[in-house]
């Protein structure tokens, strides 16, 4: 009974890992499909009822920067180098709505960690290309979030209340080659299914091991002992 329960449990966990891998493969296919769609323009984005459903889709937006609300997200890496992600709200053209734009990466001054780097932010109407993304990812932070231009994280609802901006529930990863000196070598969006296949292999191996141990200790080994003792008696 213990062997049966062990085999059922480990086989179930292996199948669950394969199911997780299948779900992630489906998600990767969805990401690839959205990435190949035609770019949304400003008007289309504003008319989208569920903007999060369009995450990973290309966009081509027009609007004006809100430079005095630029945030420098600290401890962010690009090409293994640590620095800032520069995040600036873009007030969309002909609208009161705005969207956070992750404009790119810039190195920090390690001699003066409070120094904010100079970033070129054009005035007037700008056009930018990018892709929809979730709000900027959060890093572990001790204590309360500090105000100011340099921050560890951005909480979208709190930032909207702080700035008075009507922010969309997504952000934009800027991808065009604007002349602002920012690095935009964003990592390719991809899901990792290899670990699930590895875990599945481990669980199925344990399942097979439990079956083999039962076969050896309960069937094969006793038979060998009986044969040995029978031969020894003769």
TrEMBL record:
It holds the Pfam family SURF1. The chain crosses the membrane at residues 199-217. It is a multi-pass membrane protein. It is found in: Cell membrane; Membrane. Its main location: membrane. InterPro entries: Surf1/Shy1, Surf1/Surf4. Keywords: Cell membrane, Membrane, Transmembrane, Transmembrane helix. The keyword Transmembrane applies. Belongs to the SURF1 family. This is SURF1-like protein. It comes from Hydrogenophaga laconesensis.
């Amino acid at each position: 009974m213990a062997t049966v329960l062990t085999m059922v449990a480990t086989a179930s966990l292996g199948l669950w890992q394969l199911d997780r891998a299948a779900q992630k493969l489906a998600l990767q296919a969805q990401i690839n499909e959205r990435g190949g769609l035609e770019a949304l323009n400003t008007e289309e984005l504003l008319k989208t009822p569920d903007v999060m459903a369009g995450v990973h889709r290309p966009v081509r937006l027009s609007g004006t920067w809100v430079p005095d609300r630029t945030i420098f997200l600290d401890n962010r890496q690009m090409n293994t180098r640590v620095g800032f992600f520069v995040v600036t709200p873009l007030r969309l053209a002909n609208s009161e709505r705005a969207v956070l734009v992750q404009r790119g990466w810039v190195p920090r001054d390690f001699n003066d960690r409070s120094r904010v780097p100079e970033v070129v932010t054009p005035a007037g109407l700008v056009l930018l290309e990018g892709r929809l993304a979730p709000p900027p990812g959060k890093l572990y932070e001790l204590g309360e979030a500090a105000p100011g231009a340099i921050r560890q994280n951005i909480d979208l609802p709190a930032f909207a209340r702080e700035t008075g901006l009507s922010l969309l529930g997504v952000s934009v990863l800027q991808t065009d080659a604007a002349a602002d000196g920012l690095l935009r070598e964003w990592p390719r969006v991809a899901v990792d299914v290899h670990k699930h296949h590895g875990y599945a292999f481990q669980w199925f191996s344990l399942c097979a091991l439990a079956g083999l141990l039962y076969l050896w200790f309960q069937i094969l080994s006793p038979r060998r002992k009986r044969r040995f003792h029978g031969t020894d008696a003769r």
